[in-house]
Amino acid sequence: MKILAIETSCDDTGIAVLDARKMGRTGHCLQPLASVVHTQDIHANYGGVFPMMAKREHDKNIVPVFEKALKDAKLFTPSPFGHSPFAGGEKTKSKIRKILEKDGQLAEAFVEIISKIEKPKIDAIAVTVGPGLEPGLWVGICFAKVLALVWDLPVIPVNHMEGHVLSILLQKDNIMPKIEFPALALLVSGGHTELVLMKDFGKYKVIGATRDDAAGEAFDKVARMLGLPYPGGPEISKLADMERKNLIPLPLTKGEAGRGSIGSDPSSILPLPRGGKTQITLPRPMLHSKDYDFSFSGLKTAVLYLLRDTENIPKEKIAREFEDATVEVLVAKTMRAMKEYKAQTLIVGGGVSANMYLQKTLKNRIKKEFPKSALYFPTKGLSTDNALMIAIAGYFTTLNKGIKKSRSLSSLKANGNLGFHS
Ligand code: KG4
Ligand code: ZN
After folding, report:
1. Does the CA dihedral 27-374-322-299 come out positive or negative?
2. Distance 223 CA to ligand 2 centre (A)
3. What are the angstrom distances between the C-alpha of 353 and each of 32, 268, 331, 349, 372?
4. Is 24 exposed, middle or buried (0-12, 13-18, 19+ CB in 10 A)?
């Protein structure tokens, strides 16, 4: 089946088309036909995402993203009459306007594009309904509703976090790997940090979660304290890596320490023998707690105090120690859960799963301590928010539960705090 998926839960407007089919008795082939993601850089100036600003950006960008996705998937066919038959239906148009009434110009932009094209060969629409920022979620949901109305298609509501878990099913060869259960998923994003036990597809139990900030959020906030742009994860990671390799920008005299660490003139970056270890120490919150919960707010505050109380600490030292501390806690709890639940598979998903130091540490530990267990990370572009993972989750939802075409569109609602169901 071909699924068109929509993702608008945070600051990425994503639309993807996936062609998914069964292969053999238990396998599946997942072929991406298109995946367009528009990342809203407007938030970079503020160091975080403002929900209403994100909503306005989704409103503005969703039609161009939709058009590009259809074109990439070769499903954009201009109507031979210059307009599709529905265009004459004033009743449909007024329904569209009603559904999109809170979305300014979106209704007009939608009617304009949809009138010009033929209905493509798509079997269902999948859309993120939560968790996330509700104003943005509503843009995607309303867009799914009007598409479903015009093209007479069923809508599959998708949990964004399930999307992150299932994102790993799309590997380079498009053949879905066989997942051995029980599986453990470490989900690390800007909004969530969770350890999820998975007994089967669709059967999830959250065994631990952050009590305050998410891991990605802590990366972003610490980056902001260090004067690095948003999103902070990749920036911190680059600096930490330089420190690990002893590639410190010169000169490091008093008053200049840490200046211009990223993007500075490469000729000023020299390998320095600095003894390898960082001299500053940050806490490892909840490392030894018996549960599987996390807490990153204290770690972030410790960085704040360190910057307040100590002069001229090179940024790269803080970045490295912060990354070391975060990864140490994430990995320690994950390893303990692997052992307790005898997990056969470890899945890592969410924006922070792109972190190379986390990947390397987990690879080493799994190889050493659980050599029989499989370890999966999302392939490039699937760690951070995208609609392809929503399409994959939509596909597995239909396999588990079937598609309820009769379900009324009005029952589709955004739920910012949507949790895992089982
Ligand atoms: O999953 P995602 O795209 O959005 C949410 O659902 O929240 O995750 C975004 C988060 C941001 O906090 C970003 O800083 C973090 O993922 N991130 C990283 C890396 N790449 C993205 N954190 C650490 N290292 C990275 N390489
Ligand atoms: Zn996400």
Report:
1. positive
2. 19
3. 21, 31, 12, 5, 21
4. exposed
Give the strand pairing for 345-349 and 374-376.
parallel
Gap from CA of 189 to ligand 2 centroid (Å): 6
Q: Which atom of ligand 1 is nearest to the CA of 323?
A: 23
Local structure of 278: helix, strand or coil: coil
Cα 41 to ligand 1 centroid, rounded to whole Å: 14
Tokens of 58: 């989704």
The closest residue, in CA terms, to atom 3 on ligand 1 is 384
What's the per-residue H, E or C state across 37-79?
A: EEECHHHHHCCCCCHHHHHHHHHHHHHHHHHHHHHHCCCCCEC
CA 149 to ligand 1 centroid distance, Å: 34
Q: pTM of this prediction?
A: 0.90
Question: Would you list the DSSP string of 89-106?
Answer: -HHHHHHHHHHTTTSTTH
Q: Whose CA is nearest to atom 16 of ligand 1?
A: 351
DSSP state of 121: S
Choosing from 352, 355, 385 the residue with most ligand 1 atoms within 8 A of its CB, the one to mutate for a pocket test is 352
- Who lines ligand 1 at CB under 6 A? 10, 189-191, 216-217, 219-220, 231-234, 237, 350-352, 354-355, 384-385
> Ligand 2: distance of its center to the CA of 163 in Å?
8
Q: Are strands 345-349 and 124-130 parallel, antiparallel or unpaired?
A: unpaired
Nearest ligand to the C-alpha of residue 223?
Answer: 1
pLDDT (tens, 9 = 90+) of the chain, 422 residues, equals 999 999 999 999 999 999 999 998 889 999 999 999 999 988 777 767 889 999 999 999 999 999 999 999 999 999 877 666 665 578 888 888 889 988 778 999 999 999 899 999 999 999 999 999 999 999 999 999 999 999 999 999 999 999 999 999 999 889 999 999 999 999 999 999 999 999 999 999 999 999 999 999 999 999 999 999 888 999 999 999 999 998 655 444 444 333 333 444 444 444 444 444 447 899 999 999 999 999 999 999 999 999 999 888 999 999 999 999 999 999 999 999 999 999 999 999 999 999 999 999 999 999 999 999 999 999 989 999 999 999 999 999 998 877 665 467 888 999 999 998 65
